[in-house]
Backbone:
C-alpha cells in the first residue's frame, strides 16, 4: 500500500473516534460550611478542575470517582474566570448527612430567593469515607441529571429540567461541611479543539505509545504535518530525520510512558490554547 493511501485510511479510522479521556486527581480541603445560596463570592471556595489549561466551554457531562464521607459537590458555571455573579448549577451528592442529593441553580450573586431554585432527592448512603464511589453528572439541553457509575445516562438518581439553561464554561468541585474529598475526575478531550500547534515536551526522551506511522528522512515540519492530519495522533517522536506518529490506547489516560533515548524529542499536540499541551503534563 502506498503512503498516501495508508494515511487516508488512518484518517478515516481516526474520524470515527470520540475524544480522548484524561483522568486528573484532586483533593478538596476542609472549608467549613459554605452555602450556595448565602455566599456571594462562592466560586472562590471551589477547586477548578481545569488544571491542564484545556478550554472546557460547552462541556455537558462529567464522570468521576470520589472518596468522601458526605456532601460531594460539583459546580457548573457560566463564567470561565471565577465570576460568581454569573449563573451556575450546583450538584450535591450525599448531602444532609449522606441522606439526600440535590440539583440547584442560582442566577447571580444577589442571594435573593427569586434568583434561586432547588430540588432535593432522597438518596441515602451514596458516599463512603474510605472508598471511591463512581458518579456522573450531565447538563444537556436544560436536562440536569446525577447518576451512579461511570456511564452517563445509566442509574439516574436525580433529574430536573431547567426551562432557561445556560452554556457551561467551567466546572469546579468541593466538599462541604468540613469534609475532605479525594477525587479522580475524567475529562473528554474533544479532538476538534486541537489548535494546530505542537509543544516540545522532552529532550532525550521519547513517548512509549502506539506508533501510527514511522518514516525516515523526514523533516520535523513534515512529521508535524502528518500528525496534524490524524485525529488519533496526539504527538510525535523525532530524532535526526526519523519521525514516529504516536497515539493512545483506548481507555482513560493517567500518564504518558516515556523512555530515555539520546537525541529523541517528544512533541505534544496543543488543544484550543497553546498552554493546553496536555500530554506534556502527564
Residues:
Amino acid at each position: 500500500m502506498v503512503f498516501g493511501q495508508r494515511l487516508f485510511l488512518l484518517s478515516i479510522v481516526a474520524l470515527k473516534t470520540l475524544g480522548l479521556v484524561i483522568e486528573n486527581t484532586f483533593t478538596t480541603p476542609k472549608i467549613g460550611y459554605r452555602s450556595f445560596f448565602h455566599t456571594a463570592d462562592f466560586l472562590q471556595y471551589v477547586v477548578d478542575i481545569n488544571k491542564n489549561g484545556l478550554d472546557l466551554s460547552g462541556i455537558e457531562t462529567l464522570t468521576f470517582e470520589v472518596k468522601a464521607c458526605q456532601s460531594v459537590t460539583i459546580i457548573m458555571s457560566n463564567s470561565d474566570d471565577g465570576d460568581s455573579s454569573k449563573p451556575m448549577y450546583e450538584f450535591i451528592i450525599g448531602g444532609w448527612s449522606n441522606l439526600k442529593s440535590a440539583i440547584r441553580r442560582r442566577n447571580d450573586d444577589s442571594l435573593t430567593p427569586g434568583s434561586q431554585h432547588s430540588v432535593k432527592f432522597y438518596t441515602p448512603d451514596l458516599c463512603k469515607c474510605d472508598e471511591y464511589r463512581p458518579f456522573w453528572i450531565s447538563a444537556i439541553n436544560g436536562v440536569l441529571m446525577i447518576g451512579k457509575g461511570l456511564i452517563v445516562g445509566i442509574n439516574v438518581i436525580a433529574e430536573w429540567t431547567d426551562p432557561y439553561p445556560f452554556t457551561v464554561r467551567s466546572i469546579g468541585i468541593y466538599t462541604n461541611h468540613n469534609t475532605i474529598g479525594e477525587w479522580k475526575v475524567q475529562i473528554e478531550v474533544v479532538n476538534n479543539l486541537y489548535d494546530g500547534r505542537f509543544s516540545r515536551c522532552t529532550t532525550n526522551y521519547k513517548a512509549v505509545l502506539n506508533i501510527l506511522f514511522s518514516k525516515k528522512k523526514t523533516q520535523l515540519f513534515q512529521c508535524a504535518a502528518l500528525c496534524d492530519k490524524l485525529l488519533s495522533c496526539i504527538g510525535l517522536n523525532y530524532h535526526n530525520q526519523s519521525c514516529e506518529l504516536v497515539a493512545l490506547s483506548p481507555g482513560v489516560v493517567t500518564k504518558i510512558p516515556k523512555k530515555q533515548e539520546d537525541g529523541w524529542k517528544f512533541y505534544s499536540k496543543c488543544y484550543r490554547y497553546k498552554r493546553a499541551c496536555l500530554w506534556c503534563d502527564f
